[in-house]
Amino acid sequence: xxxxxxxxxxxxxxxxxxxxxxxxxxxxxxxxxxxxxxxxxxxxxxxxxxxxxxxxxxxxxxxxxxxxxxxxxxxxxxxxxxxxxxxxxxxxxxxxxxxxxxxxxxxxxxxxxxxxxxxxxxxxxxxxxxxxxxxxxxxxxxxxxxxxxxxxxxxxxxxxxxxxxxxxxxxxxxxxxxxxxxxxxxxxxxxxxxxxxxxx
Length: 200
Ligand code: SF4
Prior knowledge:
Elements: H1 5-23, E1 43-48, E2 57-63, E3 66-72, H2 85-88, H3 91-94, E4 95-97, E5 103-105, E6 113-115, E7 124-126, H4 128-146, E8 147-153, E9 156-170, H5 176-188, E10 191-196
Parallel strand pairs: 9-10
Antiparallel strand pairs: 1-2, 2-3, 4-5, 6-7, 8-9
The structure holds iron/sulfur cluster.
Residues 49, 51-52, 54-56, 79, 83-84, 86-87 line the site of iron/sulfur cluster.
């Protein structure tokens, strides 16, 4: 089949229209399987998109402890109800649809710790207690072994109380408040290499 620019636009336009209809439960194939009132009897919770540093607001609809829908928060000053394609897929972090259009837990969701030891080419499963203890121990050891109380500047000892052996990276997955606390914690440990993934 030869694909001209015109036929490509027609095809993608039809696909987009079908996707829009499907998202509101109006396409013929799914009309009988998707709940037309997906957010009925749900409670709304607002949160921040976890995917990038723009920080769009998201409204999550929860029924019986399960997220059944997620969409842009119209009251949020950043996105005013819109979401990009990544943000629009929030619901699929937890659930995907089976062949009958029913939601089922996303089998690709990572719910446990995977650890790759130095030099190893494979991951092994660990529990959260092990991960937190190991991270804390390594931070403490690295700080203690590389802590500098003062440096000589032009023949004069200047107190610095710092370590340059640790870098601290904030995350767009965290709220402002969490990143504020992370920053305070890093400073309290003497970490001076502090940065954030958001480059916007
Ligand atoms: S990934 Fe998209 S929806 Fe999420 S914060 Fe970034 S721009 Fe907003």
